[in-house]
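Morning!

As promised:
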Amino acid sequence: VADFKIVDSAVLQPGEGEFLVRGHFLSVDPYMRGLLRPKVHYLRAVEPGDLMFGEVVGEVIESHHSGYVAGDYVAGHFGWQEFAVSNGQGVRKVDPSLAPISTALGVLGMPGLTAYFGLTEVGRPRAGESVFVSGGAGAVGSVVGQLARISGCRISASAGTDEKIAWLVEELGFNNAFNYKTSKDYHADVQRICPHGIDVYFDNVGGEITDAVMRLLNRHARTVICGQIAHYNEDKPAPGPRPFPNLLAHEARAEGFLVFSYSRRYNEALPRLADWVRRGELRYRETVAEGIDQAPEAFIGLFQGNNIGKQLVRLL
Ligand code: NAP
Ligand code: FER
């Protein structure tokens, strides 16, 4: 928390072709950990003193842009701040009649799209198959499990509290799940809850949970490498059990996945996700921290599992 500083500054005035947004909710996400390192790959690094990167949903309160009027709701990468001036680049309009606008950062936003494209395009589950999702009670994982259920799969998960397990099984229709923080033997627990093995593994966490799951893959299983949160705070990769022998023996695949590669297809997925939400087939939960002052703690809390469902920060 001491690595973040909240500063007051004057709200900028929008110029010609620009509009001013009042943020309502800020998203904090695990990927932000990767921004706080010396620049790697194409991920944009945030340097000390920079405005922290992040997506916000809010209301246009003044516009000199032909495509936006005051009162429009929008989502965009406005950073960790309460007000922002934008020229509309990378901004998406949000329909507040569809669902509460906060969902544009969760089930109807980047995490929901991650679940949708990761599962359907990489996991490719078929009805009757067994799907396992690690990090099952998070923003992405909770949607993955429900989409797998809707596809007619048997769905199992891991998560870090009994309350999360109860939510998944009793409210979201997961077949079963285990609490990895109280488990004495991950392999035995995964085997117990997946007696027919695993056809699709949607991995949000990596680490020892993944080591255990990889031993239980079925022939031609597909692993979606979506997230490796157990490793994001490591300075150098931990030596670990190696999954390739399991992939070989089961003629299985594991494939890295990035949601941004599907950006041209977001408009195909969002109406489908919204429709499932409207019909009550896709449920979601949000954990909301109050005020931008709480953003650093909310972000760090992701790595301790303090959130159930999507972690947000209320700005207004
Ligand atoms: P989230 O699951 O809502 O929040 C993170 C969760 O991770 C925590 O609630 C915690 O739950 C769990 N966790 C934290 N440290 C852990 C550890 N050491 N071992 C096991 N679990 C741990 O976050 P999200 O936004 O839905 O993201 C989930 C994963 O997907 C992340 O790895 C993220 O990087 C990845 N992701 C990838 C893409 C992509 O395009 N590839 C896009 C979005 C997200 P517990 O209580 O269960 O520990
Ligand atoms: C994430 C983890 C990693 C994520 C993106 C990445 C959007 C991208 C990593 C990279 O480009 O190297 O949760 O979410």
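The chain has nine helices and 13 strands.

Hope this helps with the figure draft.
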